[in-house]
Amino acid sequence: MRKKYIAGNWKMNLERKSxxxxxxxxxxxxxxxxxxxxxxxxxxxxxxxxxxxxxxxNIKVGAQNCCDQPAGAFTGEISAAMLAxxxxxxxxxxxxxxxxxxxxxxxxxxxxxxxxxxxxxxVILCVGETLEERNGxxxxxxxxxxxxxxxxxxxxxxxxxxTVAYEPVWAIxxxxxxxxAQASAxxxxxxxxxxxxxxxxxxERLRIQYGGxxxxxxxxxILSANDVDGCLVGGASIQAESFLGILESR
Length: 250
What we know:
Elements: E1 5-9, H1 16-30, E2 37-41, H2 47-53, E3 59-63, H3 80-85, E4 90-93, H4 96-100, H5 106-118, E5 122-127, H6 131-135, H7 139-150, E6 162-166, H8 180-198, H9 200-205, E7 207-210, H10 216-223, E8 230-233, H11 240-247
Parallel strand pairs: 1-2, 1-8, 2-3, 3-4, 4-5, 5-6, 6-7
Helix pairs in contact: 5-7, 7-8, 10-11
């Protein structure tokens, strides 16, 4: 059975004091848990301090993005090697806000995935369709393309550090969320695509998270759905009680 994986994407929220206060509570109340994998993804300016604050706990720390280049004249960018150097365990790539607000395409996201894996980081690769695409019955076509393109040239030996997050764009920050049946169908489809790329055994091991307005009130129903192996949590992850409530909802 795949262990559930609950990750908190803080996005561009919190100040230093509140960030450290949050992880202090998480460490105290969830830092020794072994029944579920937990990770937090703070803004990059707080990354090193959050790593230090959670050192020795079972809570992983990751970044919300990285550059597709290893080093050089890329003002404002942060490389995967730099993230690893300050203690990051993982990085989120292909998030819908990167795709739709900053126009990151599949080729760029794939370059980031490959360079992050090469730097030793774990990767959460996000895929998801817009409301227009869902209404046009294009969900499978879109998420299948995003998964296949995002993993181009990724070797099978690197798959142990990969998680996929299905995050329907229409459910992110809207208060809407996919029904358990919709989530199960999308996750099962993604697992099938992945099996076609890497065979059945790696597909059975792959963890697929659901992301999109996850909160304590709906987390149990979402996490009980077939093929849902965890959650990528947004707004509910920046408050200790709501994030802990999701952890208790499994």
